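Regression test case RT-17, inverse folding.

Input:
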C-alpha cells in the first residue's frame, strides 16, 4: 500500500468486491490498512477462514495492531501505486471517508509497481444491454487523458437513479473520496457500474438489483451541482459509457 490508497479504491480499480479483497488478504476491517502493505488481487489457492468483516466505513490508512502482512515473493500479490484523487468536475472528487483525514504508517518498502490490466477474454461476459441510469442533459463527457472517468448527467434533487443493468451491489456508502454517496454494481466478472453524488441510497451491499430498478435519488454530495456521475468499468478500467448506452 502507498499513501492515498484504500481497499475500496483498489477493489474498484480492479473490478473486485472490496469484501472479497479483504478476505483474500486476511483483513478483518476493510477500512484499516497500512502503507507498504502488500495486497493480493487474486484469490489464494486455499481460502482461509477469517473473522467476519466490519462493513461500516472507517478512516483510510489507519494502522491496525497485528495487521497481516504479505510475505515477499508470494504469488498473486502486488503492491499498488498511489491512487490519484479522481475528480471529474473539480472527477474519480470521493468524500473523505467519515469526513476524516487519512493517517498512514511510514514504510521502508521500495515503491511498488502495478501489473498490467487484465486482458478481456472474448465471450458472453461482454454482452450486456445497458440502459440510461437517469434522464437529463449530459454535462460532462468521458476523457481518460483528463481523468474524466465517466459522464455527468444533470437533473433535479431527488430524481430517480436506476440500475443500468442487472447485478449485485458491491458498495453502497460514502467510502471513496470525491464520489459523495456512492453505489457500485457488479454485473458479471467483466463489468461494474458506478453511480455517484447521490442524495439518498436505496439499496444495500450484497443486494441483487434488476435493470431499471430504482437504487438512489439524485443529489449533489461532494459536487457543486445536482447531477449523477456515472461510470462503466471493464475489469476495473473505465470505458466511455456513451459507446455502450443506447442512443436515440
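Golden output:
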Amino acid at each position: 500500500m502507498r499513501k492515498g490508497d484504500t481497499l475500496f479504491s483498489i477493489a474498484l480499480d480492479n473490478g473486485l468486491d472490496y469484501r472479497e479483497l479483504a478476505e483474500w488478504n486476511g483483513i478483518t476491517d476493510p477500512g484499516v490498512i497500512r502503507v507498504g502493505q502488500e495486497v493480493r488481487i487474486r484469490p489464494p489457492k486455499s481460502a482461509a477462514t477469517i473473522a467476519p468483516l466490519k462493513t461500516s466505513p472507517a478512516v483510510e490508512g489507519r494502522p491496525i495492531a497485528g495487521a497481516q502482512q504479505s510475505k515477499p515473493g508470494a504469488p498473486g500479490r502486488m503492491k499498488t501505486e498511489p491512487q490519484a484523487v479522481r475528480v471529474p468536475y473539480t472527477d474519480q472528487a470521493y468524500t473523505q471517508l467519515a469526513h476524516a483525514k487519512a493517517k498512514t504508517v511510514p514504510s521502508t518498502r521500495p515503491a511498488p509497481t502495478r501489473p498490467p490490466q487484465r486482458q478481456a477474454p472474448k465471450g458472453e461476459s461482454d454482452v450486456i444491454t445497458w440502459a440510461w441510469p437517469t434522464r437529463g442533459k449530459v454535462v460532462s463527457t468521458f476523457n481518460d487523458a483528463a481523468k474524466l472517468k465517466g459522464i455527468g448527467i444533470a437533473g433535479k434533487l431527488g430524481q430517480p437513479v436506476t440500475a443500468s443493468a442487472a447485478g449485485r451491489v458491491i458498495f453502497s456508502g460514502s467510502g471513496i473520496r470525491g464520489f459523495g454517496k456512492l453505489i457500485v454494481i457488479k454485473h458479471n466478472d467483466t463489468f461494474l457500474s458506478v453511480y455517484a453524488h447521490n442524495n439518498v441510497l436505496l439499496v444495500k451491499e450484497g443486494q441483487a438489483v434488476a435493470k431499471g430498478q430504482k437504487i438512489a435519488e439524485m443529489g449533489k454530495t461532494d459536487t457543486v451541482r445536482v447531477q449523477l456521475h456515472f461510470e462503466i468499468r471493464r475489469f476495473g478500467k473505465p470505458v466511455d459509457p456513451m459507446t455502450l448506452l443506447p442512443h436515440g
